[in-house]
Write a structure and sequence with these properties.
By secondary structure, the chain is an all-alpha fold. Helices cover 70% and strands 0% of the residues. The longest helix is centred in the middle third of the chain and has 20 residues. The protein starts with 14 loop residues before the first helix and ends with a helix. 11% of the residues are buried.
């Protein structure tokens, strides 16, 4: 029989753990970023933007898609490709328990 302690969620994450989660989250953009310095910078900026949207929650995710269309001049088919990578590969790299901890951590720093 498993005891309740086995299921306890870690209440904090140190900076190294957060950076590790971010690297896992951003990894799906690596192949796009590998082709040039400009693409690397764009992929890094996009990963940071999507990371913060994920932590902020669904409303911010929706706002982010709108910003990418209006300000980023992203074509609908390009936006769809970004969404697919985000929802299928990036977002699953952070589990729900980690997301709760990240939200608390970022809220405490603001």
């Amino acid at each position: 029989m498993l005891d309740a302690v086995s299921f306890r969620v870690k209440a904090t994450m140190d900076q190294a753990e957060i950076q590790d989660r971010f690297r896992r989250f951003a990894a799906p953009l690596a192949s796009y970023a590998a082709t040039s310095e400009e693409r690397r910078e764009l992929a890094e900026m996009l990963a940071k933007l999507l990371w913060m949207a994920m932590i902020a929650g669904p409303r911010m995710e929706e706002d982010t898609w709108q910003v990418l269309i209006s300000t980023g001049n992203l074509a609908p088919e390009s936006l769809q490709a970004v969404k697919e990578v985000y929802f299928q590969q990036m977002k699953p790299a952070v589990n729900e328990e980690e997301l709760v901890v990240l939200r608390k951590r970022y809220a405490a720093n603001n």
